[in-house]
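Researcher: I'm preparing a figure for a lab meeting and need a structural model of a single chain. I don't have an experimental structure, so a prediction will have to do for now. The sequence is pasted below. Please return the structure as tokens so I can convert it later.
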Amino acid sequence: MPYEFKDHFHDECGVFGIFLNCPENATDAARTAFYGLYGLQHRGQESAGLAVANGRQIHLHKGMGLVPEVIKDEHINALSGHIAVGHVRYSTSGASNVVNSQPMVFHYLQGMVGLTYNGNLVNAQVLRQQLATYGSVFQTTTDTEIIANLLARYSHDPIEQALAKCMIDLKGGYALVIATDDRLLGARDPMGIRPLCLGELNGNYVLASESVAFDTIGATLIRDIEPGEIVAIDSQGLRSVQHTPSSRKALCIFEYIYFARPDSTIDNINVYHARRAMGCQLARECGVAADMVISVPDSGTSAALGYAEEARLPFHEGLIKNRYVGRTFIQPTQALREISVRIKLNAVQEIVKDKRVIMVDDSIVRGTTSRQIVQMLRDAGATEVHMAVASPPTRYSCFYGIDTSRREELIASVMKVEQIQNFIGADSLHYLSTEGMFAAMAGGSGSFCAACFNGDYPIAVEGFDPGSACG
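Model: Understood. Here is the structure written out token by token.
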């Protein structure tokens, strides 16, 4: 895995689907899905793929790499049909190779299915063992193949009923977008941990992990898929089944802190406004004296703007990001690690020299990158570097579809705040409080999953004890 991924959390993937009633061209669905995946590229950079149904069969193209590297014009021209599902992946379960890429296309009793999935199942091993006992054969190491085998197990039922039965068996956070020969389906886990939304494009329905994908293709956001809801789209229109409602809603709060694009709206909350509100709240709690506020681009910028506004301090671009750095720009050798951050970021000496700087970032995972950036600012002449983090200390691992480090690698799990401050070399270190985070979101802890901060796992993980953490 490229070293640049090591000191940030990563969402597993993004899903997209479209049903065109009367496409003008045979490849309209594939081409629209291609652009939709462009809008979701931030959710996964390891692999990409499209599956397109034409009423008789489903054709597939996928591979390792970014969307434009994998899907080219000649591939789109070979994918004719009126239903398309697409996927971008960053692996959290299953190795990073093409056999684990999605969509997954398979035959079963009712026909062909193209399956895309975002999330993680906490009972994956149990389900895999049960299915293997019944005779299922697995060719990948992904949760997606488990879902495919479950659908096949219930294949005597129509696809919607089969999917409803699958959702009884599945435990975890997930969003599914599925193509059959004649319909498009979407489903969201009963607590809504992973996002999924519904849009409209010229009278046609679209599904995506984030609303920004709709903006990319010129579609309009209709609403979010409700937790536990299944939607089915075919030539007759849209049908909705509220299958497995839950007493608790637990959308992953890290969607707002880091994963989602700031121009997305998830569950009626705009991501940019959420991050800015967290930055404002952080400034209220912090109150350190300084000359300016800067951000660690790009994920810290919205919160930094909110911080600067609330603290009545100027915001400056004290760190500039190299936007031409590829996803595999560096290999994890020790010699290259020493310069990895400087390849990606550069401090502007003319801005930070002789200044007291507040540097805002979205989170600290291992602390190694923060340490290097603090030193970079000092080398550029900053007299003081205060770090402000627009989320609480990350003390616990995630089991619902986010690639977190092992708990012992989470710096806040093994160090107190003062120790972290000394480790990264900052003059002060301030985290947003958990209460402040929920206040900024205008919702209580029951509305979100914040287990990575407080150990409150909405779905029990067998064999895991959150234990005690430093803090």
